[in-house]
Amino acid sequence: MIYRQNQQLCPNIYTMPYEVRPGDTLNSIAIRFGTNLVGLIELNPTLRLRSLTVGMTICVPRVPERPTCINGAYYTIREGESFYNIAQRYSIPLNLLLEANPAANPYDLKVGQEICIPNVPAGCPFGTVVTIREGTRLSDILISYNLSLDELREANQEFNPNIIVPGAELCIPPEAVTRCVEGTTTEYVIQAGDSLSTVAIANNITPSELLIANPHLRPANFLIIGTTVCIPTA
């Protein structure tokens, strides 16, 4: 089967068309659909010659549809996760997790795929609830927990970033699990005074190469002390 939209062909049943939205970047789209920049460009060779524009259609990996989830909560698969370690983390019998996701292939979970965690209370099922202290600013929250504003809003639907109320509770979503590819990258932890450019120069690579090796990171993440980044090896 071939998908056609706005003259964009998607090569097979494992891919689907995606319309670029305001604020999208190649990195953000790659992360959303469980791939990387190389994989995204392989699906869309013309992206080598032009930039993303809002409304254009590109091909992305097809993500399995979310299952029915009554009396449970949806969870988005991250890099390196399996049904086994998810069941252990949330103290759920593995067989119940498998039964709640009959259409999911436990041997081929996709990054970005949504699964159902049964018998999980609503509210902040997979994150941590924190109480806003007096004098806390929006930037303090985002920097302290290494979040984007969109991630914070998604976990807190009624949160108003323009009004920070002391005493209010926020759900802090879990941080993405990041592992550097053994043999082709090494780990480095951001220190005081580091930036995207200084880390790149220190390792004799370009900032672009460093971002490609860390598609989950934004340029500003390279300023946050303690952030783990992957350094490409020769």
Question: Gist?
Answer:
The protein has 234 residues and is of the alpha+beta class. The protein folds into 4 domains: 59 residues, LysM domain (Membrane-bound Lytic Murein Transglycosylase D, Chain A); 47 residues, Roll (Membrane-bound Lytic Murein Transglycosylase D, Chain A), CATH 3.10.350; 45 residues, LysM domain (Membrane-bound Lytic Murein Transglycosylase D, Chain A, Roll); 48 residues, LysM domain (Membrane-bound Lytic Murein Transglycosylase D, Chain A, Roll).
Can you tell me about this structure?
There is one protein chain. This protein is an alpha+beta fold and 234 residues long. It has four domains: 3-61, LysM domain (Membrane-bound Lytic Murein Transglycosylase D, Chain A, Roll); 72-118, Membrane-bound Lytic Murein Transglycosylase D, Chain A; 128-172, LysM domain (Membrane-bound Lytic Murein Transglycosylase D, Chain A, Roll), CATH 3.10.350; 185-232, Roll (Membrane-bound Lytic Murein Transglycosylase D, Chain A). The chain has eight helices and ten strands. It has helices spanning 26-32, 37-43, 83-89, 94-100, 138-144, 149-155, 196-202, 207-213; strands spanning 3-5, 8-10, 15-19, 57-61, 72-76, 114-118, 128-131, 169-172, 185-189, 228-232.
